[in-house]
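C-alpha cells for chain A. Residues wanted.
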C-alpha cells in the first residue's frame, strides 16, 4: 500500500457518484493532496437501474459543476466512463485506454483497488468520510421518502437531482 505522503503526477479516482455527495468531495480533495492532477472515472457508466438511477451524462455534469465551483479545472485532467464489464482484466484494460498515464489509484473501494494492486499499480486507500451519512443509497432512500437529504450533497448539486 502506497504512503499518502508521496506526491504523484496523475492519479485516478473511480466512483459511481449516484449521486455526487460530500463523501465524494472528501475523496477527491484527499486525492488532490497526493497527486498533481487526477482523472475521475465514473463507474457503472453503462448501467441505469434502481441502484444507478443517474445516467453517465448526468453524473458527468454533476462532477463538472463540482470542478467549476471548487476551482479545480487545472487539477482534474478529464472525466472518463468506466463501464461495468464482467471480466476484471477487460475492465482494467478499458479503464487504462482512457487513463493510460496514471501513476497512482486513489480510492476506498476494495474491489477497484484490488484490481489495480494486482496489476502492479500504486494504490492509496482513503477511508470513507462519515459513511453513515454519505452513501448514495442512503441519500436516494431519503429522497424517495421525502426526507431531508440536501445537506448531504454540495448545495450546487441539488439542482441536478
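Reply:
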Amino acid at each position: 500500500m502506497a504512503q499518502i505522503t508521496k506526491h504523484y503526477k496523475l492519479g485516478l479516482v473511480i466512483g459511481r457518484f449516484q449521486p455526487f455527495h460530500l463523501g465524494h468531495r472528501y475523496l477527491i480533495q484527499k486525492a488532490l493532496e497526493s497527486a498533481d492532477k487526477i482523472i475521475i472515472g465514473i463507474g457503472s457508466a453503462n448501467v441505469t437501474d434502481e441502484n444507478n438511477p443517474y445516467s453517465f451524462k448526468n453524473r458527468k455534469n454533476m462532477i463538472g459543476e463540482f470542478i467549476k465551483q471548487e476551482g479545480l479545472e487545472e487539477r482534474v485532467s478529464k472525466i472518463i466512463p468506466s463501464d461495468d464489464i464482467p471480466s476484471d482484466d477487460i475492465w482494467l484494460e478499458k479503464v487504462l485506454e482512457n487513463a493510460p498515464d496514471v501513476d497512482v489509484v486513489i480510492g476506498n473501494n476494495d474491489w477497484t483497488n484490488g484490481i489495480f494492486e494486482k496489476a502492479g499499480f500504486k494504490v492509496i486507500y482513503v477511508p470513507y468520510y462519515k459513511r453513515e451519512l454519505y452513501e448514495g443509497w442512503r441519500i436516494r432512500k431519503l429522497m424517495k421518502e421525502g426526507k431531508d437529504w440536501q445537506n448531504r450533497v454540495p448545495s450546487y448539486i441539488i439542482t441536478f437531482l
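The longest strand covers residues 35-43. The chain has one domain: 8-151.
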